[in-house]
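Follow-up to my earlier ticket, as requested here are the two runs.
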Amino acid sequence: MRRHGLVLFLVALLILPVFAVTFTSCGGKEVKKQMGLTDEEKARLEAERLAREKAEADRLAKEKELEMERQRQAAAREAFLNDHAYFDFDQYSIRPDAEIVLRAKADYLTENANILAEIQGHADERGTEAYNMALGDRRAKSAMNFLETLGISGTRLTTVSYGEERPLCSDKTEDCWQKNRRAQFAIIGE
């Protein structure tokens, strides 16, 4: 019986290496996966992960840049429509502060070459209705002429006078009257 156990033991020692060689040669890839990735595979996966992160960061940066540009354009449009060129009492010459406003409007029109604008001339309530209509007209045309000297084509601009018909303020004070003596802009086409 001892001998029989010894024979079985020796047979097992001889057969075991054959099974080990068979299993490792047939399933080498499985063993490799179980043991972990090679350095080359790890480097490839890391490079892929970094590339995905960079692409996502680039996408987010581009989205932020586009949003900032949309906000800039919206603010420029808002300023174009709401910043007015003001005039002195009974005058239609361009004041230095109005020149700054009109230069900004010229910049906006240059950046947005498809826009057609209407320049609306206004006057305060003092003076006759006919006089204020004529004064509003001269103010609108004065603003238009200034824009043309800055390179804006007159074909993109129209003028209209509202005289005293559309006041921004109705108080009977100089501050209020000053707000009403203006050239105001509207976008009439894009």
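Run two:
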Amino acid sequence: MKQYVKEVLAEYTKSNILAMAIVTLVVVIFVRQFIFEGFFVSGDSMAPTILAGDFVLVNKLAYLWDEPERADIVVAIPRVYPGKVVKRIIGLPHEWFMIENSRVVIKNSRSEKSVNLDEGYLEFPDTPEVGKTRTNIDPNEYFALGDNRKVSIDSRELGMIGGENIKGRVFGVVSFKRATYIGF
């Protein structure tokens, strides 16, 4: 009788472990697909905020009810580039975006006085005038730049980022090189 009970418990335990493993796998896939995602960054376009090799954590639900805001760091898929990019939102829908004298200038209409964008998060605030440097941003489009403007390939060359192509907002960075976690 004892042997039979041991066999039943062993079988019960194996089936429980298998069921728990399957449920865990389904939950992990669901969370990664629809809620959070993480991946390693390659390239220095967001340095020094995010370095090559850093692991970024992305909230895929961040813009379900809200719109991206200026200075948000997002993961997006540009229309002319097949991969994901990590960039900072600079220009918002319906704004006029310009780069003048290596500074980002924003205004809400043609007649409005322009305002130099205060970008305190940049180590080197000079923005090279390459690619598209003046544009009117259409509805549901965003102008996104990397923090390391001298090496970043961003909306100046890739064009606007459509709102539907923004996959989520970066809410944290695990930097193994600096042995730190940075939350946004």
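The only thing I checked on run two: Helices lie at 2-34, 155-158. Let me know what else you need.
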